Amino acid sequence: MLNIGCHLSNSKGYMNMCTVSASIGGNTFQFFTRNPRGGAAKDIDPEDASAAMTFMRDHAFAKILAHAPYTLNPCAERPEVREFTLNTMRDDLKRMEYTPGNMYNFHPGSHVGQGIEKGIELISEMLNAILEPSQSTTVLLETMSGKGSEVGSRFEEIREIIDRTELNEKLGVCLDTCHVYDGGYDIVNDLEGVLEEFDRVIGLGRLKAIHINDTKNPFSSHKDRHEKIGAGYIGIEAFGRIVNHTALRDLPFYLETPNEVEGYGEEIALLRSLVTEN
Ligand code: FE
Ligand code: FE
Ligand code: ZN
Fold it and tell me: What are phi and psi of 75, to 5 degrees?
């Protein structure tokens, strides 16, 4: 069975996200740990968190994915931005322990003119400062489209961040289909070749989650604008190959397409209908 869900608002807590996801045929979900533009996170209700853990176990949910706010930049040039990022991520990881054993995704960041190498150095420095041996959360580096000065649009960059991180058994990768296609990996015409390259450079064992999005822009455009499934340049046939690929089909898929809850329900049904069970 395909493990799939969508991005949901966490304003009403974990149990609410569980029931909304289940009501649209999902068995996982993604959410922002706090306002995507940054700022304070509201207190976690431990009873809500534990009720959600029970619900997810009883309803065969796959791991849920928390997404760090967009405003963070682990490789910013300004030290105060890096400090804010570090404190926010450290706090997020502490909060993740209310729902142990799940995943936390972040954008590696933008080097803003300092250069890719400096960016990679700063990102791994931050990971070395926040990762704890005792944490139960897997931290995922998201593959990026390479817009502006984004780090993480080449598999080699992700690999180098992992290599420079001491506790890298806590690290994994979230592959965003819109981002990699925008970034110049042709998952439409050569999914096999892209996954072979991922395996050679990073290792498929690191791949823990898929952001499943179509793209508004053609191949290698480095734009990062998500489109509804089947309405963009990736297209429905390619998504059929993606959800059925032996290296991907058991991973959790998270939709981040421009949709409200109802539209997500339709996309979940559409993607489930593409699965050829054998
Ligand atoms: Fe993201
Ligand atoms: Fe994404
Ligand atoms: Zn994106």
Answer: -120, 35
By DSSP bridging, strand 252-255 and strand 29-32 are unpaired
pTM here? Answer: 0.98
Burial of 111 (0-12, 13-18, 19+ CB in 10 A): buried
How many CB atoms sit inside 10 A of residue 128's CB?
A: 13
What's the CA angle centered on 267, arms 4 and 150, to 5 degrees? 70
CA of 263 to the centre of ligand 2 (A): 18
Domain that holds residue 113: 3-273
Enumerate residues with CB within 5 Å of ligand 3 (an ion): 224
The CA radius of gyration of the chain, in Å to the nearest whole number, is 18
* CA of residue 117 to ligand 3 center, whole Å: 23
CATH of the domain at 54: 3.20.20.150
CA of 211 to the centre of ligand 2 (A): 5
- Ordered per-residue pLDDT tens for the chain, 278 residues: 999 999 999 999 999 999 999 999 999 999 999 987 767 888 899 999 999 999 999 999 999 999 999 999 999 999 999 999 999 999 999 999 999 999 999 999 999 999 999 999 999 999 999 999 999 999 999 999 999 999 999 999 999 999 999 999 999 999 999 999 999 999 999 999 999 999 999 999 999 999 999 999 999 999 999 999 999 999 999 999 999 999 999 999 999 999 999 999 999 999 999 999 75
Q: Which of 137, 180, 154, 165 is nearest to 74 (CA)?
A: 165
Distance, CA 256 to ligand 1 centroid (Å)? 8
Evaluate whether residue 278 is within a structural domain.
no
Residue 9 lies in a domain: yes
Number of structural domains in the chain = 1
CA nearest neighbour of 66 among 106, 31, 101:
31
